[in-house]
Design a protein that fits this description.
By secondary structure, the chain is mostly helical. 77% of the residues lie in helices and 1% in strands.
């Protein structure tokens, strides 16, 4: 791999980790559009651009998800009974979505990703939060939520944090427990998503060397290495910087990155 691509992946990892620590978000919203652009510049066939970006992004989230899970568990902020009820459905939803993604053309995936990120960005700009209006549902209700969260997360390569926190706070779960439980749920989403993209892309042709299915491991290693170290820096600065303003700036960045990704997959 040329030195410029190594530096690009390292820089991407540094930015993703920092933003995840600072704002509690990042992941696919940043990685997928940028990876799509990098892969295109590296000469990867257009038919695989978004699939590889999604799979590589999911795999890159695994280490961050594990670190976040451990941190929240130490503070006893994880509602493990909820995690155990959600996880089977999350695994089914995530794996099913990776299978669906493998069937969809690049342009369709790009449009879905961009529309979802526009929705996320709008929520951040307007500071829209669900009002607590009910209690946690039973096993069936939690399973339906897990199925939806896992499926959407796999299609846009996120750890499911924004979706899980919104669902739990809507069900009158304290925000600290909602965030901690969301961190725990992010681990099976990241693992299942990574495995799903590897399996469903197994027979794909013209993927880069050192790829397994739709996961490009050189990028995963380089991104994860830097994000592991920059996430704590962002977390420490979260209490010193105007996070509310930064979220709005970040939301605008998400929209611009998504538009750039659409430009790459439609016009090269």
């Amino acid at each position: 791999m040329a030195i410029e691509w190594i530096l690009a992946y390292l820089l991407l990892g540094a930015v993703v980790g920092f933003m995840a620590g600072l704002l509690g978000i990042g992941g696919g919203g940043i990685m997928v559009p940028i990876l799509t652009t990098i892969f295109s510049a590296q000469g990867i066939p257009q038919e695989h651009l978004v699939h590889l970006a999604l799979g590589t992004s999911m795999a890159s989230i695994v280490i961050t998800a594990f670190s976040s899970l451990r941190a929240h568990n130490r503070h006893q902020a994880v509602l493990w009974p909820v995690v155990w009820k959600m996880t089977p459905a999350i695994l089914v939803g995530t794996l099913s979505a990776t299978w669906l993604a493998a069937l969809l053309p690049t342009k369709s995936l790009g449009i879905f990703f961009s529309c979802f990120m526009a929705y996320v960005a709008l929520q951040m700009i307007l500071n829209i939060k669900p009002k607590p209006s009910r209690q946690l549902p039973g096993t069936t209700g939690i399973s339906i939520a897990g199925l939806s969260i896992g499926g959407i997360s796999a299609l846009v390569a996120i750890g499911g944090g924004s979706l899980t926190v919104s669902f739990l706070t809507w069900c009158n779960v304290r925000i600290q427990h909602a965030i901690g439980t969301s961190a725990a749920v992010g681990m099976p989403i990241a693992l299942a998503g990574s495995i799903g993209y590897m399996i469903n892309g197994w027979n794909a042709s013209n993927t880069p060397d050192y790829s397994v299915g739709y996961v490009y491991f050189p990028a995963v290693i380089l991104i994860s290495t830097l994000s592991y170290f920059t996430a704590p820096i962002g977390a420490r600065l979260a209490h010193k910087m105007p996070v509310a303003t930064l979220k709005k700036v970040f939301a605008c960045l998400l929209i611009l990155l998504s538009l750039k990704m659409l430009q790459t997959i439609f016009f090269g």
